[in-house]
Specification:
The complex is a heterodimer of chains A (about 160) and B (about 500). Chain A has about 160 residues and is an all-alpha fold. Chain A contains seven helices and no strands. Chain A has two domains: about 1-75, no CATH class; about 80-160, no CATH class. Chain A is about 70% helix and about 0% strand. Chain B contains 23 helices and two strands. In chain B, helix 2 (about 15-35) packs across helix 18 and helix 9 runs antiparallel to helix 19 (about 395-415). Chain B has one domain (about 5-505). Classes of the chains: A mainly alpha (about 160), B mainly alpha (about 500). The interface between A and B is large, with 70 and 74 residues.
């Protein structure tokens, strides 16, 4: 099992996983009716997307056999699922921040988002975190407002004149 | 034909305090807009266009051309400082610029970007002035088939942008081709590859893709690194204020002159790409960067050298002047920005057309003067902005990473005011991070995503024109055949260069 896991971290393993996923995707595409619908210049609607997927499969398969197949990419060597999940959480938090921002406003939610993000990333003084979060929010708001981009004002929009 | 009387009038139009004032305002706004992710030169011009309604023609042109030039350069500032290209044109600058920034040479990189931008821009403006009408004639000879081969020619440069493992570069390019097919079929206008998601019918917009692939993925990587590291607290305590006031060394004349070859490549490639309608400065930057990497493999472009910044920046700014050639000579705008400048001229009662040189020679001459003078303003104002931004880039990572996340999110949204663009940027942030982990380069994806739709559309157009005859469609003109030969030569040279690289020890690391 350990050997298989080690093998999967090599270019060969990555190429093989890519190839399998892409072949499944190609089969799915081929089974979809719109792919075979002919358009007025004689090409099918799915011709060019399928070309893209076929190219992806070809190069993934080459990765399994080429001269660099046994190399382990630098990023894969240091990759851990635990921290990758941390990354996913950062992205999810950013998506959540944006959704909330549209409802309650940029000026309210951004300092909160920044405060927690800065704290998690290593600045352990709450006072400094809060100060930096507020300053950065005001700067970003000021810059975007100056050039005419209206950021979601939210509930503050009813109170503030700008 | 040269008209001395018109030149005298143009001098009177140009040498007024209003022209200089509005040019300075235009460059300032342009550099600022360009440096903000999601806002392009076209956005800035569109914002400022209503201001020109009541202005005389020369100050209006000063404002818009200054803004255009400033924005094209401005994109590089945030590309270097935060690995977040402010505009798509600056995407190629990230590779070397951000690596220089991380090594503490941010100010040097930004000044190199400015110097190479201004140098190539001035040179291409002179070309525009001297050969605008004949060049426009050549541009008009480029039909769908010629454009198709030009794009194929650009594809051959992907090898140069692939790094050590060419297969991964080609895999990345294929992903770009695939992503470019999502949206609407260019001939039948029927949605394809949208999986029933209505907001994908317009295709994947370039700005969120770029913000995701470059900015969010880089910051995600930095964020994950920070989460892993321990003992950051002490470092941050010391650096928080000091970081902002720290200033690296500036660019020396010797370093500037060392990059002459890359600036020359950028000038030639950018000018050529610029005068062909539709290709744009992003293609100019990537092509120039790719050619420079091919020509000088010993300079290690891509590993954080000034030459890489010079090639990319010279390549994008050199397109600015020539983009106006088709507009001035034939009334055909070569880019969105050129179209908006054309619109501003029309608002002044001046219609860009083949008769423009005859009817309004003084306006054309004044425009040429503004083109040149705006470079000087760009140089002065760009330096100030550059210094400020590189200081921001030196802020401690725990502050910088969240700030970039906010800027990137807002930038994706501000681009079209569409919240789906934010979702796309986040998705591509994850894709970009995955590519970094697997060692797959992002440059081939970006360039193929940009040029694949042009290749498909031009090939299909050529086939429709020739009623399905492939030979006639793609090899029906001497220009097409010339481009095929050039493609073959370039492919051969690329393979030869790659082979010699491998022979020199490029695959030594193979276990």
């Amino acid at each position: 099992m350990k050997r298989v896991r080690k093998w999967l971290r090599r270019n060969q393993g990555i190429g093989l996983i890519f190839s399998i996923c892409l072949i499944v995707f190609l089969v799915y595409l081929e089974l979809t009716p719109w792919v075979h619908r002919e358009v007025r210049d004689g090409f099918t609607l799915g011709f060019f997307p399928v070309v893209g997927v076929v190219l992806l499969i070809i190069f993934s398969v080459i990765m399994v056999f080429d001269a660099r197949r046994r190399e382990v990419p630098e990023g894969v060597e240091v990759f851990t699922f635990k921290y990758f999940l941390g990354g996913i959480l950062i992205l999810a938090a950013t998506g959540f921040y944006f959704t909330i921002m549209r409802k309650i406003g940029f000026l309210i939610i951004t300092p909160v988002y920044l405060l927690f993000f800065i704290y998690i990333l290593g600045l352990k003084s709450w006072r400094k975190c809060a100060l930096s979060a507020v300053i950065m929010t005001v700067i970003v708001y000021g810059v975007f407002t100056c050039i005419g981009v209206r950021l979601p004002p939210g509930i503050l929009g009813r109170i503030l004149p700008f | 034909m040269f008209q001395p009387e018109a030149l005298k009038e143009a001098f009177q139009l140009f040498f007024t305090p209003e022209v200089f004032l509005w040019m300075a305002i235009g460059v300032t706004v342009g550099v600022g807009v360009g440096a903000i992710p999601g806002l392009s030169a076209a956005t800035g011009i569109a914002i400022m266009l209503p201001l020109t309604f009541t202005m005389p023609v020369a100050p209006a042109l000063g404002l818009l051309i200054g803004l255009y030039k400033g924005a094209v350069y401005g994109g590089s500032i945030s590309a270097i400082s935060f690995a977040t290209p402010g505009t798509s044109e600056a995407a190629a600058t990230v590779y070397d610029g951000y690596k220089l920034m991380k090594r503490g040479h941010g100010r040097k990189a930004v000044e190199m970007a400015l110097a190479s931008s201004v140098t190539a821009d001035t040179a291409s403006d002179l070309v525009t002035i001297c050969v605008a009408p004949p060049l426009a004639m050549v541009a008009l000879k480029f039909g769908p088939a010629e454009r198709f081969w030009l794009v194929v020619l650009a594809f051959t440069l992907i090898g140069a942008l692939s790094g050590k493992h060419i297969v991964k570069g080609l895999l990345s390019a294929s992903l770009g081709i695939f992503l470019a097919t999502i949206g609407t079929d260019p001939v039948s206008a029927v949605p394809r590859m949208t999986f029933g998601v209505y907001w994908l019918a317009g295709g994947i917009p370039f700005i969120p893709l770029m913000i995701g692939i470059f900015a969010l993925s880089t910051m995600l990587e930095e964020g994950i690194k920070l989460l892993k590291e321990s003992g950051v607290v002490e470092k941050v305590k010391v650096n928080i204020v000091k970081g902002f006031f720290k200033e690296g060394a500036g660019l020396t004349m010797k370093e500037y002159l060392r990059c002459w070859k890359e600036m020359l490549i950028g000038f030639f490639v950018g000018s050529f790409v610029g005068f062909l309608p539709g290709l744009g400065s992003t293609v100019g930057a990537f092509l120039s960067y790719g050619v420079a990497r091919q020509v000088s493999p010993d300079k290690k472009i891509g590993e954080g050298v000034l030459e890489g910044v010079a090639a990319a920046e010279a390549g994008n700014n050199a397109t600015v002047g020539p983009t106006l050639i088709p507009l001035l000579a034939f009334g055909i705008p070569g880019s969105i920005s050129a179209a908006l400048i054309g619109g501003a001229l029309m608002l002044q009662g001046i219609t860009p057309s083949p008769r423009l040189f005859k009817l309004y020679p003084e306006i054309v001459y004044a425009l040429f003067m503004i083109l040149i003078a705006a470079n000087a303003f760009n140089f002065g104002i760009g330096r100030i902005f550059g210094r400020l931004y590189t200081r921001l880039g030196l802020l401690p990572k725990p502050l910088l990473v969240p700030l970039i996340f906010v800027m990137a999110t807002i930038g994706s949204f501000a681009y079209r005011g569409n919240h789906y663009d934010v979702i796309l940027a986040l998705v591509f942030g994850l894709v970009g991070y995955g590519m970094r982990v697997f060692g797959i380069p992002s440059a081939p994806l970006v360039i193929s995503f940009l040029i694949a739709p042009m290749m498909e559309a031009n090939m299909r157009r050529a086939l429709i024109i020739s009623h399905g005859n492939w030979i006639q469609a793609l090899l029906g003109s001497p220009l097409s055949i010339g481009l095929v030969v050039a493609t073959a030569i370039l492919t051969f040279l690329s393979l030869k260069l790659k082979a010699s690289e491998i022979a020199r020890g490029g695959i030594e690391k193979v276990v």
